[in-house]
Queue: 4 jobs
Job 1
Amino acid sequence: GAGVSQSPSNKVTEKGKDVELRCDPISGHTALYWYRQSLGQGLEFLIYFQGNSAPDKSGLPSDRFSAERTGGSVSTLTIQRTQQEDSAVYLCASSLRREGTGELFFGEGSRLTVL
Amino acid sequence: GESVGLHLPTLSVQEGDNSIINCAYSNSASDYFIWYKQESGKGPQFIIDIRSNMDKRQGQRVTVLLNKTVKHLSLQIAATQPGDSAVYFCAEWEGGENKLTFGTGTQLKVEL
């Protein structure tokens, strides 16, 4: 497809388990972002990848969270030893990196529920 | 720290009326201010942006106004339609940080 693709769309897991969320950005987009959205809340920045540069991890809430981007395309967000407060929708976005714009293209998100 | 916030959590309007969604911001260093629309179960979708050195920008049925004196941003939707029902987020873009910071959001409900 032409848009940002995320999988799984829904994930239910037990507390303490690890989860992996996948993002396929739009082809040719060099910038990739992960955001977290809790119920009824705004979007919280997690991490940003730009080309081959070191990622900006300043938004990751704890060392249980990590992300990688292989080959400058697909990204995986990993949450280890999940906690109930990790329950949220995890949104991925990509963009053509142009100076001075904030137009990001978002996927539909992965809804994570930690029991 | 710097933040972006919204005045009204819920706005109800009649179909055909104009809608005005407001937002306050605190970071004067932002390069762009952007409005996103998020429909239920979907990711946010870019609507319109405005550069920090402008005070008004018009799109199709939407107008964004920026008042830097009072650090206020608004989104005006003309002739609101049922398809406009969604949560609207204002966001600010810092080019140097390559980061988009979102506000809490306003739920727009269009009544028939």
Job 2
Amino acid sequence: QQQVKQSPQSLIVQKGGISIINCAYENTAFDYFPWYQQFPGKGPALLIAIRPDVSEKKEGRFTISFNKSAKQFSLHIMDSQPGDSATYFCAASKKGYSGAGSYQLTFGKGTKLSVIP
Amino acid sequence: GAGVSQSPSNKVTEKGKDVELRCDPISGHTALYWYRQSLGQGLEFLIYFQGNSAPDKSGLPSDRFSAERTGGSVSTLTIQRTQQEDSAVYLCASSQPGALRDTQYFGPGTRLTVL
């Protein structure tokens, strides 16, 4: 059962354009939704995250839009740059585990973004 | 330390051999996670440590997989009798409970290839 579905698998955007990646989740217990950026040979790095009590969060050129009723969230990258070319993962986590605080992340399968000059 | 470190960066082994993968979390981080990244399955949770205890082992795929953490710091993931389907990148992440408790910082991973 894939709990977080991500699309598209790959995306090609012109420099200066807007990149949009979408995710949908099934488990209503999820309460934290981060996006990670991964470059080849590196581990994922947190880009931006949102909780379901807000519908949008913006940090620089990156914006998360969140629709709780539809159980969907998306990442928008404004003014996309060649340096943004990477694989992006959405993820979700829920409140820990018997109070022990496990915030294990459930990841989407990733979107490979290529920004062409 | 400056970040999460993992060793070795690459490991090639023969089917049936045991392997040990090491993770050094960020100093002071009490929570430590292991994930596996493979082409077909994406990133999957394996095990969670809080201090030296592992209250959540729900992601370990079989009893060939085990992990331990000592001194609330270094963790070792052991895979016994490796199989070709174990080939993947094994990622470690650490976090610190608090205001940013959900921020998991990932290491660069260990790429395991089982021949």
Job 3
Amino acid sequence: DQQVKQNSPSLSVQEGRISILNCDYTNSMFDYFLWYKKYPAEGPTFLISISSIKDKNEDGRFTVFLNKSAKHLSLHIVPSQPGDSAVYFCAASGSMYSGGGADGLTFGKGTHLIIQP
Amino acid sequence: GAGVSQSPSNKVTEKGKDVELRCDPISGHTALYWYRQRLGQGLEFLIYFQGNSAPDKSGLPSDRFSAERTGESVSTLTIQRTQQEDSAVYLCASSLVRSANEQFFGPGTRLTVL
């Protein structure tokens, strides 16, 4: 059973608008969450993270929101740019310092974001 | 400096053959991770190394899978008697310390088992 779920396989957004990518998790032991971005034929690259003690973390055009009671997080990109077109993976960990411990990071299936000109 | 590199980038093999996948982490990174991504799936954690030791191998899918790391550097993931379900992209990541958000990924090895 998937512990990290990204229910939208793809999302199309017009350039300049806000992109909102959603992620749900089921394991209440997760306390650190990350977003990775992946271009074709490349490995994922770290984008932004949030600890469970926070409900928001912002870095430039990227903001991650965490709703612990709903076990839901979202990534907002504003304004969206053509270079943002990629697959975005949500990932969760049992601890910021453990690399997820013996279980590593638990990833969702990804959402393919397409920014239209 | 150079990022994480993996070789080969693509590997096509016949069912039943053994394959060896290589990962060169970023120099000085003590932690190394292997993940697998099957078509349409998320990344599946396989194993991690702290130095040359793998404390927990329970994430490996079967006993046909093994991994080792030497010199706190290069790691190899070996799959014996490959099966079609082993077809996937195998990704390696490394981090300076055992930290969740500082994992740097390589480009992956795409394995196809015919």
Job 4
Amino acid sequence: GQQLNQSPQSMFIQEGEDVSMNCTSSSIFNTWLWYKQDPGEGPVLLIALYKAGELTSNGRLTAQFGTTRKDSFLNISASIPSDVGIYFCAGHLHFPSGGSNYKLTFGKGTLLTVNP
Amino acid sequence: DVKVTQSSRYLVKRTGEKVFLECVQDMDHENMFWYRQDPGLGLRLIYFSYDVKMKEKGDIPEGYSVSREKKERFSLILESASTNQTSMYLCASSYPGQGFGNQPQHFGDGTRLSIL
């Protein structure tokens, strides 16, 4: 299956710093989703994006749906220790017929470590 | 909030056993999914179902089967467990959301399965 290119693979930052991560693809996507996974848990949806150019916030998190529909980024401002975890991007591919399907394409994740 | 419940958090089985992983969702979602998650490989789709008694193969269906007799329940079956099926298994569900604006998937907490 197709994978999204997610970067960076890992980040080690100090508490209070801002964080930025992104996903890119050679294909067009209809939706972009950002999930967080804590150790030993399942992924939890953070932000869902449905339109090119859309910028959406969820507390200290902000994500954008790229205007080309081939990329998305997630920013975390003023990081705190509980931000530690793996962040995944995911999206629904656009089909030439104009539709898409139920399946999600995932990035491999960004492992975030926050040093108190 | 959407609740996706997986029957076991940890499971240890022996090679050759038939293993059942159960997943229940409480949001009347049509779509349900089974993934496995391995370090360095990300999330890989095993099977999904878009309606009761309907199923489609994902990217890695070999060695697995599924059952969806009721809308809220989706079971993953390892017909004859092997050590290379040791993994974290994640169940997810979503509304159909055909075309643009596909709906996000919501995940359970996962089952960490060890095959000895």
